[in-house]
Amino acid sequence: MIAITRAVIRRWVEALFHIHDTPSRTAAAFALGVFFGFSPFLGLHTLLALACAFVLNLNRVAVLVGVYSNLPWIIGAYYALTTAAGAWVLGTKVPAGFRDRVAELFALSFLEKAFWERLWVLVGPLLWPYFVGSFVGAVLLALAAYYVTRGLLEARQRHTREARTRTTR
């Protein structure tokens, strides 16, 4: 009975995680995760990535590893740089006195209505640059992640095959 249960669990885990996927499919799963991890859909990235992984029948673990490659210590710098790039592409100017106005904003309590009104006035003009910049950045990072990951997985696969042929001689 235990052997049957283990076999069922093993088949379920292999189906869920796609353990025997090709390097291309695993790299695609990782790249999809990287895309959502660095996309403008901050806060929804995990849910959207997993939904796409299920729809496309991709490795869920590889997708999650990709999503969480956007680490907390780089997230602020990434979104600041991509928003600045998006503003440059769209020709959007940063509001005058932006830094001082941000400092004034955080002098208020975030529980006050005035905080949220001033926040909207301050960052509202930067929403399109944020979206465009982080979307383009996410696409570029996902493409790089796909090609690097596929190359590494194919090299590992070749190495494993060569090691097997050496041990069977």
Query: Structural class, please?
Result: mainly alpha
How far is the N terminus from the C terminus? 39 Å
Largest sheet: none
Gyration radius, in Å = 22 Å
Strand content: under 5%
Along the chain, the helix and strand elements come as HHHHHHHH
What's the arrangement of secondary structure elements?
Blueprint: H1 2-17, H2 23-37, H3 45-56, H4 60-67, H5 72-90, H6 98-105, H7 113-123, H8 127-168
Helix pairs in contact: 2-3, 2-4, 2-8, 3-4, 5-8, 6-7
Describe the overall structure.
By secondary structure, the protein is mainly α. It has one domain (2-95, 125-168). 78% of the residues lie in helices and 0% in strands. It has 8 helices and no strands. It has helices at residues 2-17, 23-37, 45-56, 60-67, 72-90, 98-105, 113-123, 127-168. Helix 3 (45-56) packs antiparallel against helix 4 (60-67). The protein is elongated and about 75 Å long. The mean pLDDT is 86.
Could you name the key traits of this structure?
mainly alpha, 169 residues, 8 helices
What is this entry, summarized?
With 169 residues, this protein is mainly alpha-helical.
